[in-house]
Amino acid sequence: VQLVQSGAELRNPGASVKVSCKASGYTFTIYYIDWVRQAPGQGLEWMGRIHPEDGETNYAQKFQGRVTFTADTSTSTVYVELSSLRSVDTAVYYCARTEGSGYPFDYWGQGTQVTVSS
Fold it and tell me: 61 — phi, psi (to 5°)?
């Protein structure tokens, strides 16, 4: 099983960013993919999850209206798009696989550094 994320991104405040997470080595549509971020010096922050089979999403309240998860089953890839970026969105963004609520993350992507700076 592998989750491979796209490379580092640098954005200006107010812009949007889209990060990908390509899955391989398992049946893509069976597991949820969650997105978690870690800002410098901070703990992990859960952003939400998507079920690739039907596109069902669950966003953390903090990010609702500003984040969008999508899944492309033809390429086994999940995307997170975050808009209206602020400097506090500077963080490493991770995708992680899980069976669902109450289950642990069993595989993680390598992380994508997103830097928001003018």
Answer: -55, -35
Direct distance between the N- and C-terminal alpha carbons of the chain, in angstroms, rounded to an integer: 37
Separation of alpha carbons 93 and 75, rounded Å: 20
Answer whether 20's CB lies under 8 Å from 77's CB. Answer: yes
Do the strands 112-116 and 9-11 form a parallel or antiparallel pair, or are they unpaired?
Answer: parallel
Q: Let me know the angle formed at the C-alpha of 24 by 11 and 46, rounded to the nearest 5 degrees.
A: 50
Alpha-carbon distance of 16 to 65, in angstroms, equals: 13
The reported pLDDT for the residue numbered 61 is: 97
Identify the three-state secondary structure at position 94.
Answer: strand
Tokens of 87: 């400097």
Contact criterion met (CB below 8 Å) for 78 and 71? yes
Residue 111 has a pLDDT of 98
